Amino acid sequence: MEIRRFQSADAEQIAQLFHDTVREINCRDYSENQVKAWAPDNIHFRNWEKICSQRFTYVAEEDGLILGFGELELHGHIGCFYCHKNYQGRGVGSQIYQAIEAKAIAFGLDDLFTEASITARPFFDRIGFSVLTEQQVFLRGEAFINYAMKKSLKNGNYSGC
Question: From CA 25, how far away is CA 21, in angstroms rounded?
């Protein structure tokens, strides 16, 4: 598996990975209506190309298949962070996260923060994030619970990067 920066040609695979993962993995923690609002059928890969190009987006790739991706914004926010529905629990997310954390350290950031879904929270707990608050957010008419989470990179609180 190779961890590399996003390329425009990745956008269609990333959009499909996002859609399929939300629909087939996040449905364990969210209702059918919620996952359909979160990952609608009319997903546009050009939107993903624009967003991923504007951030430090890392992808995990193996034999031409994107296994996961994660985005870092310049101020320390981790945006989208998804692993392929068929590659959950295989270390893909950990490797993507290590690339993100290394970039954050190189930028001199003190903290990373994210809004983790119910499904993603255990992963972020394991890599040292703490819950700041549970929150309710709204998307396309549906209410969702997620968690504002933060990790300090000060004082050597690193994940082995």
Answer: 5
pTM: predicted TM-score of the whole model, two decimal places: 0.89
Contact 144, 115 (CB under 8 A): no
List of residues 6+ apart from 66 with CB closer than 8 A: 10, 13, 14, 17, 59, 60, 84
3-state secondary structure of 31: coil
Tens digits of pLDDT across the chain (161 residues): 999 999 989 999 999 999 999 999 988 999 999 989 988 888 766 678 878 888 899 999 999 999 999 999 999 999 899 999 999 889 999 999 999 999 999 999 999 999 999 999 999 999 999 999 999 989 888 899 999 999 999 865 545 43
